[in-house]
Amino acid sequence: MSDKFDVIVIGAGPGGYVAAIRAAQLGLKTACVEKWVDDKGATVLGGTCLNVGCIPSKALLESTHQFHNAQHADVHGIMTSDVTMDVKKMVARKDTIVKNLTGGIAGLFKANGVTLLQGMGKLHGNKQVEVTAADGSTATYAAENVILASGSVPVEIPPAPLTEGLILDNEGALNIDETPKRLGVIGAGVIGLEMGSVWARLGTEVTVLEAMDDFLALTDKDVAKEAAKLFKKQNLDIKLGARCTGTEIIDGKEVKVKFTDAEGDKEIIVDKLIVAVGRKPQTKGLLADDSGVSLDERGFIFVNEQCATGVPGVYAIGDSVRGPMLAHKASEEGIMVADIIAGHHAQLNYDVIPNIIYTHPELAWVGKTEQELKAEGVKVKVGKFPFAASGRAMAANETEGFVKIIACEETDRILGVHMVGAIASELIGQAAIAMEFCSSAEDLQLTVFAHPTVSEAIHEAALAVDGHAIHMANRKKR
């Protein structure tokens, strides 16, 4: 038996590494187990988000957005010609950003006194954690508390088995180093839309196959409708109700994608195919039979609102438990659990977790949709304000989209905020803060927003809730 720890965290993704750092900051003897190693055998920290998810995808999205802006800079009076993209350099920049950030976590572990244990972690009974190193050797550690933060993996589908260089998951999609002429994407969710956007900006013919009949079914219908219009304008061919039925590799260079929709059987031929149909919890091999921790039929770990499992002292956070698979949700759960272990009161407000799709314009929302609230029988009042009426948005040539605020008709409390806009990912934080403090629409109406700023659209949308918007004509109440 090796050292005993106050806390052992299994997984060093955005939930796990944050939990480990917080626990160590609170004076707890903490270790973090991570199985991921690079081609040189060094431990890779940061999980999916930092390595093959949130961060690298945003790097590619930013590079291609800058390229798009350079191509259309004449609207600002900036005349350019023959703008080209060095895709290999773009990918190399993405890799450098990832390396810097993951290396930074190792430095934070050292600075905070977190012990890194390299290997595959498995929870046994009595909070014993077995760690199997890359060379097959094992060691067992005891802990007063264990935090399971094993993350998630992409869902694979039988009709489109991954094929190196041709049929790719989200990790493979991030390493495409030449602009494909034709790209197919299965799944019109966050990953599918973001990766499709990256290559559409570079001139790729992008076809997105979405099995569901509704586009972005979980978002507010106004957001989904606006997004569908804008993506069509950007030459993203999104086919709804299109279910992939099979794939065929042609001469080792192309992929024939077979699908069926309301009109019958169809097929397209693409140079690359990205499978982006969602993710599932990575809990295989995580729990020994005597661990006492329960999984549901989909592989998620059962937890309560404070992320406690049925075993005292064992917690689970992030993508392996209920709730949205979001890095920031995982991180905040990690902080909450570390605080609870240290004896502090902590609670996460699951009603106020922002969601973002980093296309351009961006889609962002927090709280409930108008459709959800009406289905619950809540009487609401709605205010919308278009960025086309914002002076700062006009100056930036970013007038697409709007801000929508939904408030309770009886209490005036803000219940949901939904946006489509160039910097919606930054603006949504203002909405989350307001909702966290139980803001009413009137509270935002009485708040002084700086002029000229894009965030004035939030102010105007709040005013519009009661028909008092200043810089647009208000709808007449019936």
UniProtKB/TrEMBL annotation:
Positions of the Pyridine nucleotide-disulphide oxidoreductase dimerisation domain: 353-462
PROSITE patterns: PYRIDINE_REDOX_1 (PS00076)
Cofactor note: Binds 1 FAD per subunit.
Xref: Gene3D superfamilies: 3.30.390.30, FAD/NAD(P)-binding domain
This protein's UniProt keywords: Cytoplasm, Disulfide bond, FAD, Flavoprotein, NAD, Oxidoreductase, Redox-active center
Domain (FAD/NAD(P)-binding): residue spans on this chain: 5-334
Pfam families given in the database record: Pyr_redox_2 (PF07992), Pyr_redox_dim (PF02852)
EC number: 1.8.1.4
Catalysed reaction, written as an equation: N(6)-[(R)-dihydrolipoyl]-L-lysyl-[protein] + NAD(+) = N(6)-[(R)-lipoyl]-L-lysyl-[protein] + NADH + H(+)
Molecular function GO labels: dihydrolipoyl dehydrogenase (NADH) activity
UniProt cross-references to InterPro entries, sorted A to Z: Class-I_Pyr_Nuc-Dis_Oxidored, FAD/NAD-bd_sf, FAD/NAD-binding_dom, FAD/NAD-linked_Rdtase_dimer_sf, Lipoamide_DH, Pyr_nuc-diS_OxRdtase, Pyr_nucl-diS_OxRdtase_dimer, Pyr_OxRdtase_I_AS
Subcellular location: Cytoplasm
Cofactor: FAD
Further facts: The active site is a redox-active disulfide bond.
Protein family according to the UniProt entry: Belongs to the class-I pyridine nucleotide-disulfide oxidoreductase family.
UniProt-listed PANTHER family: DIHYDROLIPOYL DEHYDROGENASE, DISULFIDE OXIDOREDUCTASE
Protein's UniProt name: Dihydrolipoyl dehydrogenase
